[in-house]
Design brief:
heterodimer, A: mainly beta, about 0% helix, B: mainly beta, six-stranded mixed β-sheet, four-stranded antiparallel β-sheet, globular
Chain lengths: ~120, ~110
């Protein structure tokens, strides 16, 4: 069964440094998402992306965050200048559609630890 | 504001017994409803969804969920629990109107004892 893959599985970064989290969505999916889960808290929506544009973003997704689909397979989340509170598990997801109730399929996540 | 409530942090059940994991939601209109399961060190795995139609939907691994519009609930059920069902279960909703985002509950840890 096709899977969403995320790399790295664990990223440790100094506060203030830039970090890029990488995702390879399921190959025939067109809608891409990032969510995060701070330890012990809910899974929270960050951003959705379609047709090379952000289609929706949450208030968490401020100017420090950006997303990109640099080629036909990768989907990245960049945090420009990391803060301690960015420490969380970041999940990438993809879907074949957005308006028909198609489920979002998640990767195993990247655990981001900011020191 | 849109929200999802999973009132139980943990549900304990003996293997072979039926299980129920509760979920209620507050979303205007008719939402899409989902259940996901998370095993240790893994991502969220899609179990089942309610879009429209029959209130009882069937999903993976013998799980089913019952949609109740009047009670705004979408409880996850399984007639006979397995030890391997032990995991963290998340209910999620999505407003049908012009949004992509899933809103998740806080999760319920299911522990099935042999």
């Amino acid at each position: 069964e096709p899977e969403v893959t995320q790399t790295p599985s664990h990223q440790v970064t100094q506060m203030g440094q830039e970090v890029i989290l990488r995702c390879v969505p399921i190959s025939n999916h067109l809608y891409f998402y990032w969510y995060r889960q701070i330890l012990g808290q809910k899974v929270e929506f960050l951003v959705s992306f379609y047709n090379n544009e952000i289609s929706e973003k949450s208030e968490i997704f401020d100017d420090q965050f950006s997303v990109e689909r640099p080629d036909g397979s990768n989907f990245t989340l960049k945090i420009r200048s990391t803060k301690l509170e960015d420490s969380a598990m970041y999940f990438c997801a993809s879907s074949s559609g957005d308006r028909g109730g198609q489920p979002q399929h998640f990767g195993d996540g990247t655990r981001l630890s900011i020191l | 504001a849109q929200s999802v409530a999973q009132p139980e942090d943990q549900v304990n059940v003996a293997e072979g017994n039926p299980l129920t994991v509760k979920c209620t939601y507050s979303v205007s209109g008719n939402p899409y409803l989902f259940w996901y399961v998370q095993y240790p060190n893994r991502g969220l795995q899609f179990l089942l969804k309610y879009i429209t139609g029959d209130n009882l939907v069937k999903g993976s691994y013998g799980f089913e969920a019952e949609f109740n519009k009047s009670q705004t609930s979408f409880h996850l059920k399984k007639p006979s629990a397995l030890v391997s069902d032990s995991a963290l279960y998340f209910c999620a909703v999505r407003d049908r109107r012009n949004t992509d985002k899933l809103i998740f509950g806080t999760g319920t840890r299911l522990q099935v004892f042999p």
